[in-house]
Amino acid sequence: MTLRHPARIEDVYGRARAVLTSTSTGEMWMQSTWLKFEQWLSEHWPARLKDLNPPATREEITALETALGVQLPADYVACLQRHNGQAAAARGLFDCAKFLSTTEILSQWSIWEKSPDGAGDHHCLDLAPADGGVSGQVIDMWHDMSDRNVLEP
């Protein structure tokens, strides 16, 4: 049996950005979207639902923002406050890509900071876009390619 992946990160994040009109609306939308997604997972992919971590604490989010030197978008903070990524041994949730916890984000970010080739392939929030880019856009970062494609503005 072939399992169709339920969501692509750029689709989920793109829809979130399209309907945001305020921080509180974005946070409510994120919680509503997670509820629907969790329901879908419970019916169609229960093993992956069990892989989701508990919510990130305010301290974990603050530590991530401090280490990265950025303020994370409110809708992404709301996402982390629902689930702080997936369990360490879990398989990909979004388009075969793993939903990283705050700890794993910091680990991967430190690898990318030390080496432009990085290690691994990721969908990332671009919080320091190049000219013409939009802060918060979703980009791909492949370890063996220098180009960064915008997946969702």
Taken as a percent bin, the fraction of beta residues is 5-15%
Q: Tell me the number of helical segments per DSSP (H or I, 4 or more residues long).
A: 6
Largest sheet: 3 strands, antiparallel
> What shape does the CA trace take?
globular
Q: Topology as H/E string? A: HHHHHHEEE
Quick summary:
By secondary structure, this protein is mainly alpha-helical. It is 47% helix and 8% strand.
Task: Provide a descriptive summary of the structure in words.
With 153 residues, the protein is mainly alpha-helical. Helix content is 47%, strand content 8%. The chain has six helices and three strands, in the order ααααααβββ. It has helices at residues 9-19, 23-44, 46-51, 58-68, 74-82, 102-114; strands at residues 122-126, 137-141, 150-152. It has a three-stranded antiparallel β-sheet. A hairpin with an 8-residue loop joins strand 2 and strand 3. The longest helix is centred in the first third of the chain and has 22 residues, at 23-44. The radius of gyration is 15 Å and the shape is globular. The N and C termini lie far apart (34 Å). The relative contact order is 0.15.
